[in-house]
Amino acid sequence: MSVIDVAPLNSKSRVLFASLIGTTIEFFDFYIYATAAVLVFPKLFFPSADPTSGALQSLATFAVAFFARPVGSALFGHFGDRVGRKATLVAALLTMGVSTVAIGLLPTYANIGVWAPALLALCRFGQGLGLGGEWGGAVLLATENAPPGKRAWYGMFPQLGAPIGFLCSSGVFLLLTETITDEDFFHWGWRVPFIASAVLVMVGLWVRLSIAETPAFQRALEREERVRVPMWTVLTKHSRALVAGTFAAMATFVLFYLMTVFALSWGTTHLGFGREQFLLLQMVAVLFFAATIPLSAWFADRFGRRFAMLAASVAVLLFGVFFGPLFQLGGAWGVLLFLVLGLGVMGLTYGPCGTILAEMFPTPVRYTGASLAFNLAGIIGASPAPYIATKLAQSYGLQAVGWYLAGAALLTLLALLLVPRARED
């Protein structure tokens, strides 16, 4: 019997809101770090003698979270597959929230020297740990409660947390920039988003504690299907799905962090944009990211998840071919067009991504398998992307960044051809 044949234990609105609110909070926390890694941390947490070196070191701490995410996948995935989705989602949200608030309370390099970047990296690791456990559980909460023919549609609600979280994080930084002086912003204003995230975490916990377990996990309990060590089972019995899923999501990560972190850094340092102007342009473009996620989910339910991802990956490849010329069109309108196209394509690939990864693994190891594939993709796709793109652009020009993206899309296309048949359990 499939998940979709069993009456859900949760109401539709509760499931969708619980899956959306958690990822929104998690991505808000994650993105305020990404923004601060470009605008704030190079000046406050690293030696100021060499601005370029400080920027690269800051981006290196940004990458730390992506190496923590697979650890979070293994840790939270183990309990998600053994104990349950609900309790694990609550623990993941708490881990992310505590780490984020701690960043807002850290002393700077001027206060404690090299301990400042060390503590910053430690907190960033905690962020990655929490997000590594959050994403997979939120996707399973949605997809394992989905009715017939709506699995991709349900599965896109956690994905919407990415653009919403980005809009909120950029909006907060933009508001601070407009309402306080630069001196106040670097003295205390940058801390506000990190500390204020505590309020959002409390809301998320309240929602998460009100939901019941998914029908699929309940059925796994009744059938005594749980395995002792889910990670070992994934590595030994589902290695093909793990590898295929990792590379199937890789281009998604590369594209997003080129369009957000790298674009913000390059636009404010080489194209002459102020941080307020570029953040505003990104916020407008993220609306198109949010709009194409449901479009891609509808397409995936109608024509199949793999076909939808294949089509989106071709779009990513084509965007990579024209990346350099588009980013150099000139003026605010030219950059806005570049951002709209890139983030619009991002929504096409991101919408069905969670569902296709969840369908690749059976219920007893689904939390671990889907989370691990997604977060390993983050290591090879997202963690080095801003750093590699910066070095490529400085050495060979912006089009070299486009070929980097096109190469990632080609690898994803090849991986999607190896994706196993969707599971219905």
Please provide a written account of the structure.
The protein has helices at residues 12-39, 41-44, 51-82, 85-104, 109-112, 115-143, 151-179, 182-189, 191-208, 215-222, 230-237, 239-248, 250-269, 275-303, 305-321, 323-327, 331-350, 353-358, 366-382, 385-396, 398-416. The protein has 425 residues and is mainly α. α7 packs antiparallel against α14. It is globular.
Provide the fold topology.
Blueprint: H1 12-39, H2 41-44, H3 51-82, H4 85-104, H5 109-112, H6 115-143, H7 151-179, H8 182-189, H9 191-208, H10 215-222, H11 230-237, H12 239-248, H13 250-269, H14 275-303, H15 305-321, H16 323-327, H17 331-350, H18 353-358, H19 366-382, H20 385-396, H21 398-416
Helix pairs in contact: 1-3, 1-4, 1-6, 1-7, 1-9, 1-13, 3-4, 3-6, 3-19, 4-6, 4-9, 6-7, 6-19, 7-14, 12-19, 12-21, 13-14, 13-17, 13-19, 13-20, 13-21, 14-15, 14-17, 15-17, 15-21, 20-21
* Structural class label: mainly alpha
Architecture, according to CATH?
A: Up-down Bundle
Biggest beta sheet attributes: none
DSSP, total strands: 0
CATH class: Mainly Alpha
What sort of overall outline do the alpha carbons produce when their principal axes are compared?
globular
Question: Helicity range of the residues?
Answer: over 70%
Detail the poorly predicted runs: 1-8
In angstroms, what is the radius of gyration? Answer: 20 Å
The chain-level mean pLDDT equals 85
What is the count of distinct domains?
1
